Amino acid sequence: MSKMKKIKTNKHPMQRLLQYGKTYRNLIWQAVTCSVINKIFDLAPPVLIGAAVDVVVNQQDSFIGKLGVNDVFNQLLILSFLSIIVWGLESLFQYTYERLWRNLAQNIQHNLRLDAYGHLQELELAYFEERNTGLLLSILNDDINQLEHFLDVGANEILQVMTTVVIVGAMFFIVTPGTAWMAMLPIPFILWGSITFQKLLAPRYADVREKVGLLNSRLSTNLSGITTIKSFTTEAYELDRLRHESQAYRKSNLKAIAFSSAFVPLIRMVILIGFTAILLYGGMEVVDGKLAVGNYSVLVFLTQRLLWPLTKLGQTLDLYQRSMASTNRVMKLLDTPLTIHSGTIALPTGTVKGKIELNNVNFAYQEGYPIIKNLSLNIPAGNRIGVVGSTGSGKSTLVKLLLRLYEIDHGEISLDDINIQDIYLGDLRKSIGLVSQDVFLFHGTAKENIAYGNNNASYREIIEAAKIAEAHEFIEQLPQGYDTIVGERGQKLSGGQRQRIAIARAILKDPPILILDEATSAVDNETEAAIARSLEKITAQRTTIAIAHRLSTIRHSDCIYVMEFGKIVEQGTHEKLLEKQGIYAGLWQVQTGVISEY
Question: What transmembrane ranges does the database entry give (predicted)?
Fold first, then answer.
Protein backbone atom coordinates (compact mmCIF):
# COMPACT_ATOMS: atom_id res chain seq x y z
CA MET A 1 0.00 0.00 0.00
CA SER A 2 1.38 3.40 -0.95
CA LYS A 3 2.85 5.52 1.80
CA MET A 4 1.28 8.60 0.25
CA LYS A 5 -2.37 7.69 0.65
CA LYS A 6 -2.67 9.62 3.90
CA ILE A 7 -1.21 12.80 2.45
CA LYS A 8 -3.63 15.56 1.51
CA THR A 9 -3.61 16.63 -2.09
CA ASN A 10 -3.72 20.40 -1.41
CA LYS A 11 -0.18 20.53 0.00
CA HIS A 12 2.76 22.02 -1.89
CA PRO A 13 4.89 19.37 -3.63
CA MET A 14 7.87 20.20 -1.39
CA GLN A 15 5.76 19.71 1.74
CA ARG A 16 4.60 16.38 0.44
CA LEU A 17 8.12 15.37 -0.47
CA LEU A 18 9.34 16.20 3.03
CA GLN A 19 6.45 14.26 4.52
CA TYR A 20 7.26 11.32 2.30
CA GLY A 21 10.88 11.46 3.45
CA LYS A 22 10.02 11.19 7.16
CA THR A 23 11.42 7.67 7.08
CA TYR A 24 14.82 9.20 6.41
CA ARG A 25 14.58 11.94 9.04
CA ASN A 26 17.93 11.04 10.61
CA LEU A 27 19.69 10.84 7.26
CA ILE A 28 18.22 14.23 6.24
CA TRP A 29 19.41 15.90 9.43
CA GLN A 30 22.88 14.41 9.02
CA ALA A 31 23.06 15.71 5.44
CA VAL A 32 21.77 19.15 6.46
CA THR A 33 24.25 19.39 9.33
CA CYS A 34 27.21 18.43 7.15
CA SER A 35 26.17 20.93 4.45
CA VAL A 36 25.97 23.75 7.00
CA ILE A 37 29.28 22.88 8.69
CA ASN A 38 31.00 22.58 5.31
CA LYS A 39 29.83 26.08 4.37
CA ILE A 40 31.03 27.49 7.70
CA PHE A 41 34.52 26.14 7.04
CA ASP A 42 34.26 27.32 3.41
CA LEU A 43 33.70 30.87 4.69
CA ALA A 44 36.74 30.72 7.00
CA PRO A 45 39.53 31.35 4.39
CA PRO A 46 38.54 35.02 3.83
CA VAL A 47 38.83 35.53 7.59
CA LEU A 48 42.27 33.89 7.56
CA ILE A 49 43.31 36.08 4.63
CA GLY A 50 42.19 39.17 6.54
CA ALA A 51 44.15 37.99 9.58
CA ALA A 52 47.22 37.43 7.39
CA VAL A 53 46.94 40.96 5.98
CA ASP A 54 46.56 42.24 9.51
CA VAL A 55 49.75 40.40 10.57
CA VAL A 56 51.77 41.67 7.61
CA VAL A 57 50.61 45.29 7.99
CA ASN A 58 50.46 45.64 11.78
CA GLN A 59 52.94 42.90 12.75
CA GLN A 60 53.25 42.92 16.60
CA ASP A 61 50.14 45.11 16.82
CA SER A 62 48.01 42.60 14.89
CA PHE A 63 45.06 40.82 16.46
CA ILE A 64 47.15 37.66 16.98
CA GLY A 65 50.03 39.74 18.33
CA LYS A 66 47.73 41.17 20.98
CA LEU A 67 47.00 37.60 22.07
CA GLY A 68 50.66 37.21 23.10
CA VAL A 69 52.36 35.91 19.95
CA ASN A 70 54.75 38.71 19.00
CA ASP A 71 56.91 37.00 16.37
CA VAL A 72 55.47 37.58 12.86
CA PHE A 73 56.69 34.20 11.61
CA ASN A 74 54.94 32.41 14.48
CA GLN A 75 51.78 34.38 13.78
CA LEU A 76 51.86 33.29 10.14
CA LEU A 77 52.68 29.76 11.24
CA ILE A 78 49.56 29.72 13.40
CA LEU A 79 47.50 30.96 10.47
CA SER A 80 49.04 28.28 8.22
CA PHE A 81 48.20 25.60 10.77
CA LEU A 82 44.63 26.90 11.05
CA SER A 83 44.39 26.92 7.24
CA ILE A 84 45.36 23.24 7.10
CA ILE A 85 42.71 22.38 9.70
CA VAL A 86 40.04 24.50 7.99
CA TRP A 87 40.71 23.13 4.51
CA GLY A 88 40.92 19.57 5.80
CA LEU A 89 37.60 19.81 7.69
CA GLU A 90 35.95 21.55 4.74
CA SER A 91 37.00 18.68 2.45
CA LEU A 92 35.90 16.07 4.99
CA PHE A 93 32.44 17.56 5.41
CA GLN A 94 32.08 18.05 1.65
CA TYR A 95 32.76 14.35 1.12
CA THR A 96 30.30 13.50 3.89
CA TYR A 97 27.45 15.73 2.73
CA GLU A 98 27.80 14.67 -0.90
CA ARG A 99 27.66 11.03 0.09
CA LEU A 100 24.69 11.59 2.44
CA TRP A 101 22.66 13.64 -0.08
CA ARG A 102 23.32 11.17 -2.87
CA ASN A 103 22.41 8.20 -0.69
CA LEU A 104 19.27 10.02 0.37
CA ALA A 105 18.41 10.74 -3.27
CA GLN A 106 18.94 7.11 -4.23
CA ASN A 107 16.86 5.81 -1.32
CA ILE A 108 13.95 8.17 -1.90
CA GLN A 109 13.84 7.68 -5.67
CA HIS A 110 14.07 3.90 -5.21
CA ASN A 111 11.21 3.75 -2.71
CA LEU A 112 9.13 6.37 -4.50
CA ARG A 113 9.39 4.43 -7.76
CA LEU A 114 8.39 1.21 -5.99
CA ASP A 115 5.50 2.93 -4.19
CA ALA A 116 4.29 4.54 -7.42
CA TYR A 117 4.53 1.30 -9.39
CA GLY A 118 2.96 -0.69 -6.54
CA HIS A 119 0.05 1.73 -6.40
CA LEU A 120 -0.24 1.60 -10.18
CA GLN A 121 -0.59 -2.19 -10.07
CA GLU A 122 -3.49 -1.89 -7.63
CA LEU A 123 -5.50 0.40 -9.92
CA GLU A 124 -8.37 -1.00 -11.92
CA LEU A 125 -7.94 -2.02 -15.55
CA ALA A 126 -9.96 0.97 -16.76
CA TYR A 127 -7.22 3.33 -15.54
CA PHE A 128 -4.73 1.78 -17.97
CA GLU A 129 -7.19 1.63 -20.84
CA GLU A 130 -7.75 5.39 -20.54
CA ARG A 131 -4.03 6.27 -20.46
CA ASN A 132 -1.04 5.73 -22.65
CA THR A 133 1.75 3.53 -21.35
CA GLY A 134 4.35 6.10 -22.38
CA LEU A 135 2.83 8.74 -20.08
CA LEU A 136 2.99 6.36 -17.12
CA LEU A 137 6.57 5.38 -17.98
CA SER A 138 7.49 9.05 -18.07
CA ILE A 139 6.25 9.47 -14.49
CA LEU A 140 7.90 6.31 -13.18
CA ASN A 141 11.21 7.04 -14.87
CA ASP A 142 11.82 10.64 -16.01
CA ASP A 143 9.93 12.45 -13.25
CA ILE A 144 11.42 10.41 -10.42
CA ASN A 145 14.90 10.80 -11.93
CA GLN A 146 14.35 14.57 -12.06
CA LEU A 147 13.53 14.53 -8.36
CA GLU A 148 16.64 12.47 -7.66
CA HIS A 149 18.80 15.09 -9.42
CA PHE A 150 17.38 17.86 -7.25
CA LEU A 151 18.15 15.92 -4.05
CA ASP A 152 21.64 15.20 -5.37
CA VAL A 153 22.50 18.84 -6.01
CA GLY A 154 19.79 21.42 -5.42
CA ALA A 155 18.93 20.77 -1.76
CA ASN A 156 22.54 21.24 -0.67
CA GLU A 157 22.94 24.43 -2.71
CA ILE A 158 19.85 25.99 -1.13
CA LEU A 159 21.12 25.16 2.35
CA GLN A 160 24.57 26.56 1.67
CA VAL A 161 23.21 29.82 0.28
CA MET A 162 21.05 30.23 3.39
CA THR A 163 24.04 29.46 5.64
CA THR A 164 26.19 31.97 3.76
CA VAL A 165 23.62 34.76 4.19
CA VAL A 166 23.28 34.10 7.93
CA ILE A 167 27.00 33.68 8.76
CA VAL A 168 28.34 36.46 6.56
CA GLY A 169 25.56 38.82 7.54
CA ALA A 170 26.35 38.24 11.21
CA MET A 171 30.07 38.85 10.61
CA PHE A 172 29.35 42.12 8.79
CA PHE A 173 27.34 43.45 11.70
CA ILE A 174 30.06 42.35 14.15
CA VAL A 175 33.07 43.75 12.25
CA THR A 176 31.57 46.90 10.77
CA PRO A 177 27.98 47.62 11.67
CA GLY A 178 28.07 50.91 9.76
CA THR A 179 28.68 49.33 6.35
CA ALA A 180 26.87 46.01 6.83
CA TRP A 181 23.65 47.34 5.36
CA MET A 182 25.36 47.98 2.03
CA ALA A 183 26.25 44.33 1.59
CA MET A 184 22.83 43.19 2.77
CA LEU A 185 20.87 45.69 0.67
CA PRO A 186 20.72 43.56 -2.54
CA ILE A 187 19.51 40.43 -0.71
CA PRO A 188 15.79 41.40 -0.35
CA PHE A 189 15.70 42.25 -4.08
CA ILE A 190 17.38 38.94 -4.94
CA LEU A 191 14.93 36.98 -2.80
CA TRP A 192 11.97 38.89 -4.25
CA GLY A 193 13.23 38.19 -7.76
CA SER A 194 13.72 34.51 -6.93
CA ILE A 195 10.17 34.11 -5.63
CA THR A 196 8.76 35.97 -8.63
CA PHE A 197 10.72 33.83 -11.05
CA GLN A 198 9.62 30.70 -9.23
CA LYS A 199 5.94 31.58 -9.64
CA LEU A 200 6.41 32.41 -13.31
CA LEU A 201 8.49 29.30 -14.02
CA ALA A 202 6.14 26.81 -12.33
CA PRO A 203 3.49 26.63 -15.11
CA ARG A 204 6.20 26.57 -17.77
CA TYR A 205 7.90 23.53 -16.28
CA ALA A 206 4.57 21.82 -15.69
CA ASP A 207 4.00 22.17 -19.43
CA VAL A 208 7.50 20.79 -20.10
CA ARG A 209 6.75 17.66 -18.04
CA GLU A 210 3.44 17.24 -19.88
CA LYS A 211 5.12 17.50 -23.28
CA VAL A 212 7.89 15.04 -22.41
CA GLY A 213 5.19 12.60 -21.28
CA LEU A 214 3.48 12.86 -24.67
CA LEU A 215 6.82 12.41 -26.41
CA ASN A 216 7.58 9.26 -24.40
CA SER A 217 4.07 8.03 -25.14
CA ARG A 218 4.67 8.36 -28.87
CA LEU A 219 8.02 6.57 -28.67
CA SER A 220 6.60 3.74 -26.56
CA THR A 221 3.65 3.24 -28.90
CA ASN A 222 5.79 3.25 -32.03
CA LEU A 223 8.36 0.81 -30.68
CA SER A 224 5.57 -1.56 -29.63
CA GLY A 225 3.99 -1.34 -33.06
CA ILE A 226 7.16 -1.44 -35.16
CA THR A 227 5.95 -4.47 -37.12
CA THR A 228 2.76 -2.67 -38.13
CA ILE A 229 4.73 0.45 -39.06
CA LYS A 230 7.03 -1.54 -41.32
CA SER A 231 4.26 -3.61 -42.91
CA PHE A 232 2.26 -0.48 -43.79
CA THR A 233 5.43 1.42 -44.82
CA THR A 234 4.48 4.36 -42.60
CA GLU A 235 8.00 5.08 -41.36
CA ALA A 236 7.98 8.60 -42.83
CA TYR A 237 4.52 9.28 -41.41
CA GLU A 238 5.53 8.13 -37.91
CA LEU A 239 8.78 10.10 -38.10
CA ASP A 240 6.75 13.19 -38.92
CA ARG A 241 4.40 12.55 -35.98
CA LEU A 242 7.40 12.08 -33.69
CA ARG A 243 8.89 15.29 -35.07
CA HIS A 244 5.68 17.08 -34.11
CA GLU A 245 5.79 15.78 -30.51
CA SER A 246 9.52 16.47 -30.18
CA GLN A 247 9.07 19.96 -31.57
CA ALA A 248 6.31 20.65 -29.04
CA TYR A 249 8.63 19.49 -26.24
CA ARG A 250 11.47 21.62 -27.61
CA LYS A 251 9.29 24.73 -27.85
CA SER A 252 8.00 24.19 -24.33
CA ASN A 253 11.56 23.90 -23.06
CA LEU A 254 12.66 26.97 -25.03
CA LYS A 255 9.97 29.07 -23.32
CA ALA A 256 11.17 27.97 -19.91
CA ILE A 257 14.84 28.41 -20.86
CA ALA A 258 14.30 31.91 -22.24
CA PHE A 259 12.75 32.95 -18.96
CA SER A 260 15.09 31.18 -16.55
CA SER A 261 18.21 32.35 -18.43
CA ALA A 262 17.36 35.98 -17.66
CA PHE A 263 17.59 35.41 -13.92
CA VAL A 264 21.39 35.30 -13.45
CA PRO A 265 22.24 38.42 -15.53
CA LEU A 266 19.62 40.47 -13.70
CA ILE A 267 20.72 39.25 -10.27
CA ARG A 268 24.36 39.87 -11.21
CA MET A 269 23.64 43.57 -11.75
CA VAL A 270 21.91 43.82 -8.37
CA ILE A 271 24.91 42.13 -6.72
CA LEU A 272 27.24 44.59 -8.44
CA ILE A 273 25.59 47.46 -6.53
CA GLY A 274 26.32 45.90 -3.13
CA PHE A 275 29.86 44.88 -4.05
CA THR A 276 30.72 48.35 -5.43
CA ALA A 277 29.29 50.06 -2.36
CA ILE A 278 31.48 48.01 0.00
CA LEU A 279 34.53 48.51 -2.24
CA LEU A 280 34.20 52.32 -2.32
CA TYR A 281 32.76 53.11 1.09
CA GLY A 282 34.88 50.54 2.93
CA GLY A 283 38.02 51.78 1.16
CA MET A 284 37.33 55.34 2.27
CA GLU A 285 36.77 54.09 5.82
CA VAL A 286 40.28 52.56 5.74
CA VAL A 287 41.78 55.78 4.36
CA ASP A 288 40.09 57.76 7.14
CA GLY A 289 41.44 55.32 9.72
CA LYS A 290 37.98 54.17 10.77
CA LEU A 291 38.46 50.59 9.50
CA ALA A 292 41.45 48.28 9.81
CA VAL A 293 43.08 47.05 6.59
CA GLY A 294 42.61 43.42 7.63
CA ASN A 295 38.93 43.96 8.36
CA TYR A 296 38.54 45.70 5.00
CA SER A 297 40.09 42.67 3.26
CA VAL A 298 37.70 40.38 5.10
CA LEU A 299 34.71 42.51 4.11
CA VAL A 300 35.66 42.61 0.43
CA PHE A 301 36.18 38.85 0.30
CA LEU A 302 33.03 38.09 2.31
CA THR A 303 30.97 40.41 0.13
CA GLN A 304 32.01 38.33 -2.84
CA ARG A 305 31.32 35.14 -0.88
CA LEU A 306 27.93 36.46 0.24
CA LEU A 307 26.56 37.84 -2.99
CA TRP A 308 28.21 35.88 -5.76
CA PRO A 309 26.75 32.45 -4.80
CA LEU A 310 23.33 34.04 -5.11
CA THR A 311 23.82 34.01 -8.87
CA LYS A 312 23.53 30.23 -8.63
CA LEU A 313 19.99 30.70 -7.42
CA GLY A 314 18.97 30.81 -11.07
CA GLN A 315 20.27 27.31 -11.77
CA THR A 316 19.08 26.02 -8.40
CA LEU A 317 15.67 27.58 -8.94
CA ASP A 318 15.51 26.07 -12.40
CA LEU A 319 16.31 22.64 -10.99
CA TYR A 320 13.87 23.16 -8.12
CA GLN A 321 10.97 24.04 -10.40
CA ARG A 322 11.64 21.10 -12.69
CA SER A 323 11.72 18.74 -9.72
CA MET A 324 8.55 20.19 -8.19
CA ALA A 325 6.72 19.76 -11.49
CA SER A 326 7.88 16.15 -11.54
CA THR A 327 7.02 15.63 -7.87
CA ASN A 328 3.53 16.93 -8.53
CA ARG A 329 2.99 14.38 -11.30
CA VAL A 330 4.25 11.51 -9.14
CA MET A 331 2.07 12.56 -6.22
CA LYS A 332 -0.98 12.83 -8.47
CA LEU A 333 -0.39 9.24 -9.50
CA LEU A 334 -0.13 8.17 -5.86
CA ASP A 335 -3.32 10.13 -5.10
CA THR A 336 -5.32 8.20 -7.67
CA PRO A 337 -8.00 6.44 -5.59
CA LEU A 338 -8.47 2.69 -5.73
CA THR A 339 -11.91 1.65 -6.94
CA ILE A 340 -11.42 -2.07 -6.41
CA HIS A 341 -10.69 -2.99 -2.81
CA SER A 342 -9.68 -6.41 -1.59
CA GLY A 343 -12.05 -8.41 0.58
CA THR A 344 -11.02 -9.86 3.92
CA ILE A 345 -12.12 -13.49 3.64
CA ALA A 346 -9.22 -15.84 2.98
CA LEU A 347 -9.90 -18.57 0.46
CA PRO A 348 -6.79 -20.73 -0.06
CA THR A 349 -6.59 -22.36 -3.47
CA GLY A 350 -6.69 -25.85 -1.98
CA THR A 351 -10.10 -25.21 -0.41
CA VAL A 352 -11.82 -23.83 -3.52
CA LYS A 353 -14.46 -26.14 -4.99
CA GLY A 354 -15.19 -23.91 -8.00
CA LYS A 355 -18.93 -23.21 -7.78
CA ILE A 356 -19.67 -19.90 -9.53
CA GLU A 357 -22.94 -17.96 -9.47
CA LEU A 358 -23.94 -14.69 -11.08
CA ASN A 359 -27.18 -13.10 -9.92
CA ASN A 360 -28.70 -10.20 -11.87
CA VAL A 361 -25.31 -8.80 -12.80
CA ASN A 362 -25.18 -5.47 -14.62
CA PHE A 363 -22.09 -3.73 -15.92
CA ALA A 364 -21.18 -0.84 -18.23
CA TYR A 365 -17.79 0.56 -19.19
CA GLN A 366 -19.50 3.90 -19.71
CA GLU A 367 -22.65 4.94 -17.94
CA GLY A 368 -25.67 4.57 -20.18
CA TYR A 369 -24.05 1.91 -22.39
CA PRO A 370 -24.56 -1.41 -20.58
CA ILE A 371 -22.49 -4.41 -21.70
CA ILE A 372 -23.89 -6.97 -19.25
CA LYS A 373 -27.62 -6.79 -18.50
CA ASN A 374 -29.32 -8.67 -15.64
CA LEU A 375 -27.13 -11.69 -16.24
CA SER A 376 -27.75 -14.75 -14.06
CA LEU A 377 -25.61 -17.84 -14.37
CA ASN A 378 -25.03 -20.93 -12.25
CA ILE A 379 -21.90 -23.00 -12.83
CA PRO A 380 -21.65 -26.09 -10.59
CA ALA A 381 -18.24 -26.99 -9.22
CA GLY A 382 -16.20 -29.12 -11.62
CA ASN A 383 -18.42 -28.40 -14.63
CA ARG A 384 -17.14 -27.47 -18.06
CA ILE A 385 -19.16 -24.75 -19.72
CA GLY A 386 -18.82 -22.98 -23.02
CA VAL A 387 -19.75 -19.37 -23.83
CA VAL A 388 -20.33 -18.26 -27.40
CA GLY A 389 -21.75 -15.20 -29.05
CA SER A 390 -21.05 -12.50 -31.57
CA THR A 391 -18.34 -9.90 -31.11
CA GLY A 392 -19.34 -7.37 -28.47
CA SER A 393 -21.86 -9.64 -26.79
CA GLY A 394 -20.01 -9.43 -23.46
CA LYS A 395 -18.13 -12.74 -23.35
CA SER A 396 -14.67 -11.38 -22.51
CA THR A 397 -16.19 -8.78 -20.19
CA LEU A 398 -17.63 -11.68 -18.20
CA VAL A 399 -14.08 -12.97 -17.63
CA LYS A 400 -12.89 -9.56 -16.43
CA LEU A 401 -15.75 -9.39 -13.94
CA LEU A 402 -14.97 -12.83 -12.56
CA LEU A 403 -11.37 -11.76 -11.98
CA ARG A 404 -12.55 -8.43 -10.54
CA LEU A 405 -10.52 -6.50 -13.08
CA TYR A 406 -13.67 -4.37 -13.16
CA GLU A 407 -16.30 -3.92 -10.48
CA ILE A 408 -19.90 -4.80 -11.35
CA ASP A 409 -22.50 -2.02 -11.20
CA HIS A 410 -25.28 -4.15 -9.75
CA GLY A 411 -25.96 -7.72 -8.69
CA GLU A 412 -23.63 -10.28 -7.18
CA ILE A 413 -20.98 -12.74 -8.24
CA SER A 414 -20.12 -15.51 -5.80
CA LEU A 415 -17.50 -18.23 -5.58
CA ASP A 416 -18.41 -21.22 -3.39
CA ASP A 417 -21.35 -19.16 -2.06
CA ILE A 418 -19.08 -16.27 -1.01
CA ASN A 419 -19.43 -12.87 -2.65
CA ILE A 420 -16.18 -12.36 -4.57
CA GLN A 421 -16.03 -8.77 -3.26
CA ASP A 422 -15.60 -10.24 0.23
CA ILE A 423 -12.79 -12.60 -0.77
CA TYR A 424 -9.17 -11.57 -0.43
CA LEU A 425 -8.33 -10.38 -3.95
CA GLY A 426 -5.07 -12.32 -4.14
CA ASP A 427 -6.84 -15.58 -3.20
CA LEU A 428 -9.59 -14.98 -5.75
CA ARG A 429 -7.17 -14.49 -8.63
CA LYS A 430 -4.89 -17.32 -7.52
CA SER A 431 -7.85 -19.68 -7.80
CA ILE A 432 -8.43 -18.73 -11.45
CA GLY A 433 -6.16 -19.63 -14.36
CA LEU A 434 -6.67 -17.45 -17.43
CA VAL A 435 -5.54 -18.19 -20.95
CA SER A 436 -6.40 -15.07 -22.89
CA GLN A 437 -6.86 -14.57 -26.60
CA ASP A 438 -4.28 -11.77 -26.41
CA VAL A 439 -1.33 -13.76 -25.09
CA PHE A 440 1.36 -11.78 -23.32
CA LEU A 441 4.81 -13.30 -22.89
CA PHE A 442 7.59 -11.54 -21.02
CA HIS A 443 11.06 -10.96 -22.41
CA GLY A 444 12.78 -14.05 -21.04
CA THR A 445 13.18 -17.75 -21.67
CA ALA A 446 10.43 -20.17 -22.58
CA LYS A 447 11.03 -21.84 -19.22
CA GLU A 448 10.61 -18.58 -17.30
CA ASN A 449 7.39 -17.75 -19.12
CA ILE A 450 5.86 -21.14 -18.36
CA ALA A 451 6.86 -20.87 -14.71
CA TYR A 452 5.59 -17.30 -14.41
CA GLY A 453 3.46 -17.07 -11.28
CA ASN A 454 4.87 -20.34 -9.97
CA ASN A 455 8.57 -19.67 -9.56
CA ASN A 456 9.00 -22.64 -7.24
CA ALA A 457 8.10 -25.09 -9.98
CA SER A 458 10.74 -27.68 -10.79
CA TYR A 459 12.17 -28.18 -14.27
CA ARG A 460 10.35 -31.51 -14.48
CA GLU A 461 7.00 -29.84 -13.66
CA ILE A 462 7.63 -27.20 -16.32
CA ILE A 463 8.31 -29.87 -18.95
CA GLU A 464 5.22 -31.84 -17.89
CA ALA A 465 3.02 -28.75 -18.23
CA ALA A 466 4.52 -28.04 -21.66
CA LYS A 467 3.81 -31.61 -22.78
CA ILE A 468 0.17 -31.39 -21.71
CA ALA A 469 -0.15 -28.09 -23.62
CA GLU A 470 1.44 -29.68 -26.72
CA ALA A 471 4.31 -27.17 -26.41
CA HIS A 472 7.20 -29.47 -25.47
CA GLU A 473 8.00 -30.58 -29.00
CA PHE A 474 8.40 -27.13 -30.55
CA ILE A 475 10.25 -25.79 -27.49
CA GLU A 476 12.79 -28.60 -27.79
CA GLN A 477 13.42 -27.52 -31.39
CA LEU A 478 14.22 -23.92 -30.40
CA PRO A 479 17.94 -22.94 -30.53
CA GLN A 480 18.46 -23.23 -26.75
CA GLY A 481 15.40 -25.31 -25.97
CA TYR A 482 13.66 -24.19 -22.81
CA ASP A 483 16.39 -21.57 -22.27
CA THR A 484 15.63 -19.79 -25.55
CA ILE A 485 14.79 -16.09 -25.20
CA VAL A 486 11.31 -15.60 -26.70
CA GLY A 487 11.68 -11.83 -27.17
CA GLU A 488 9.50 -8.97 -25.98
CA ARG A 489 5.85 -10.11 -25.98
CA GLY A 490 7.09 -13.42 -27.38
CA GLN A 491 7.74 -11.90 -30.81
CA LYS A 492 10.19 -14.67 -31.76
CA LEU A 493 7.37 -17.23 -31.60
CA SER A 494 4.33 -17.80 -33.79
CA GLY A 495 0.87 -17.01 -32.48
CA GLY A 496 0.12 -20.67 -31.94
CA GLN A 497 3.38 -21.23 -30.07
CA ARG A 498 2.72 -18.27 -27.80
CA GLN A 499 -0.74 -19.60 -27.04
CA ARG A 500 0.53 -23.06 -26.16
CA ILE A 501 3.10 -21.56 -23.76
CA ALA A 502 0.27 -19.55 -22.18
CA ILE A 503 -1.75 -22.74 -21.76
CA ALA A 504 1.27 -24.46 -20.19
CA ARG A 505 1.59 -21.53 -17.81
CA ALA A 506 -2.03 -21.93 -16.72
CA ILE A 507 -1.58 -25.69 -16.35
CA LEU A 508 1.45 -25.23 -14.11
CA LYS A 509 -0.53 -22.79 -11.95
CA ASP A 510 -2.97 -25.67 -11.37
CA PRO A 511 -5.97 -23.50 -10.43
CA PRO A 512 -9.35 -24.93 -9.37
CA ILE A 513 -10.99 -22.69 -12.02
CA LEU A 514 -9.73 -22.47 -15.60
CA ILE A 515 -10.86 -19.79 -18.04
CA LEU A 516 -10.02 -20.18 -21.72
CA ASP A 517 -10.76 -16.95 -23.59
CA GLU A 518 -10.40 -17.90 -27.25
CA ALA A 519 -7.48 -20.07 -26.20
CA THR A 520 -7.21 -21.82 -29.58
CA SER A 521 -7.89 -18.84 -31.81
CA ALA A 522 -4.31 -18.64 -33.12
CA VAL A 523 -3.55 -22.31 -33.72
CA ASP A 524 -4.00 -24.49 -36.75
CA ASN A 525 -6.52 -27.33 -36.87
CA GLU A 526 -3.93 -29.99 -36.06
CA THR A 527 -2.68 -28.09 -33.00
CA GLU A 528 -6.24 -27.33 -31.98
CA ALA A 529 -7.04 -31.03 -31.98
CA ALA A 530 -3.93 -31.72 -29.90
CA ILE A 531 -4.84 -28.99 -27.42
CA ALA A 532 -8.39 -30.30 -27.26
CA ARG A 533 -6.99 -33.67 -26.16
CA SER A 534 -4.90 -31.89 -23.53
CA LEU A 535 -7.87 -29.94 -22.28
CA GLU A 536 -9.71 -33.19 -21.67
CA LYS A 537 -7.02 -33.98 -19.11
CA ILE A 538 -6.53 -30.59 -17.49
CA THR A 539 -10.22 -29.70 -17.19
CA ALA A 540 -11.02 -32.84 -15.22
CA GLN A 541 -11.99 -32.14 -11.60
CA ARG A 542 -11.93 -28.38 -12.11
CA THR A 543 -14.44 -25.75 -13.15
CA THR A 544 -13.75 -24.66 -16.73
CA ILE A 545 -15.18 -21.74 -18.64
CA ALA A 546 -14.29 -21.78 -22.33
CA ILE A 547 -15.10 -18.75 -24.48
CA ALA A 548 -14.83 -19.67 -28.13
CA HIS A 549 -15.68 -18.74 -31.66
CA ARG A 550 -14.70 -22.21 -32.82
CA LEU A 551 -17.64 -24.22 -31.60
CA SER A 552 -15.77 -27.49 -32.06
CA THR A 553 -13.67 -26.65 -28.99
CA ILE A 554 -16.69 -26.49 -26.68
CA ARG A 555 -19.09 -29.03 -28.17
CA HIS A 556 -18.44 -31.50 -25.33
CA SER A 557 -19.11 -28.95 -22.56
CA ASP A 558 -21.60 -29.79 -19.82
CA CYS A 559 -23.52 -26.67 -20.78
CA ILE A 560 -23.14 -24.03 -23.48
CA TYR A 561 -24.39 -20.48 -23.07
CA VAL A 562 -25.11 -18.21 -26.02
CA MET A 563 -24.74 -14.49 -25.29
CA GLU A 564 -26.19 -11.61 -27.25
CA PHE A 565 -26.16 -7.96 -26.17
CA GLY A 566 -25.04 -8.85 -22.65
CA LYS A 567 -27.72 -11.47 -22.02
CA ILE A 568 -28.00 -15.25 -22.08
CA VAL A 569 -30.33 -16.01 -24.97
CA GLU A 570 -29.76 -19.76 -25.25
CA GLN A 571 -28.34 -22.48 -23.04
CA GLY A 572 -28.01 -26.23 -23.08
CA THR A 573 -25.77 -29.00 -24.33
CA HIS A 574 -24.44 -29.04 -27.88
CA GLU A 575 -27.06 -31.53 -28.96
CA LYS A 576 -29.99 -29.69 -27.37
CA LEU A 577 -28.96 -26.37 -28.82
CA LEU A 578 -28.78 -27.86 -32.30
CA GLU A 579 -32.26 -29.25 -31.84
CA LYS A 580 -33.58 -25.77 -31.03
CA GLN A 581 -32.45 -24.53 -34.42
CA GLY A 582 -31.63 -21.14 -32.91
CA ILE A 583 -28.58 -18.90 -32.89
CA TYR A 584 -26.17 -21.64 -31.87
CA ALA A 585 -27.42 -24.00 -34.57
CA GLY A 586 -26.95 -21.23 -37.13
CA LEU A 587 -23.38 -20.62 -35.99
CA TRP A 588 -22.64 -24.34 -36.15
CA GLN A 589 -23.99 -24.56 -39.69
CA VAL A 590 -21.88 -21.62 -40.81
CA GLN A 591 -18.70 -23.11 -39.33
CA THR A 592 -19.23 -26.66 -40.56
CA GLY A 593 -20.76 -25.76 -43.90
CA VAL A 594 -23.45 -28.40 -43.47
CA ILE A 595 -26.53 -28.88 -41.37
CA SER A 596 -25.72 -31.16 -38.48
CA GLU A 597 -27.40 -34.48 -38.10
CA TYR A 598 -28.73 -33.28 -34.75
Answer: 72-93, 158-175, 181-201, 256-281
pLDDT band at 295 (very low <50, low <70, confident <90, very high): low
The rounded percent of the chain whose pLDDT value lies above 90 is 6
73 burial (CB, 10 Å; 0-12 / 13-18 / 19+) is exposed
Contact 205, 256 (CB under 8 A): yes
User: Residue ranges of the domains in the chain?
Assistant: 3-335
Single-letter code of the amino acid located at 192:
W
CA angle 501, 506, 509 (to 5 degrees): 125
For domain 3-335, which architecture applies? Up-down Bundle (1.20)
Interval 554-569: pLDDT, tens:
888 889 999 888 888 8
Q: What angle do CA 499, 501, 504 make, to 5 degrees?
A: 115
* Strand 432-435 to 356-366 pairing: unpaired
Cα torsion 565, 567, 572, 576: sign: negative
pLDDT tens digits for range 470-529: 888 888 888 888 888 887 777 788 777 888 888 888 888 888 998 888 766 656 666 667
Contact 424, 432 (CB under 8 A): no
